[in-house]
Amino acid sequence: THLEQHQAVQAIAVGEALLRLDPDNHAVLLRLGMIYLQQEQYEEAQIHFKTVYQAEEASSRPLAAWYLALVHGRYGQTQQCQMFLREAAAGDAHTHQATRLLALIKA
Description:
- With 107 residues, the protein is an all-alpha fold.
- Helices cover 79% and strands 0% of the residues.
């Protein structure tokens, strides 16, 4: 709806402003990535998830892997999707869903 779209635009503006103050804020990066994913702005989502995934501090890495798997799945990039799903499952990020998606991809 128009209201949801407006709220997403506002949330993106706030998130991007927060990132200018703290570019390494994983919570903001992940949330922005999720908003971009919901808005079907996959390239923007991937940029934010990849930033978290590649960070030295690894506590958010499995969650970033989960979302990167979704983005790669959307692009039909099965090998990358599987790689990120395995990492997400091993790192306790959406373990059940990641394991189930892996099984479906292999079937």
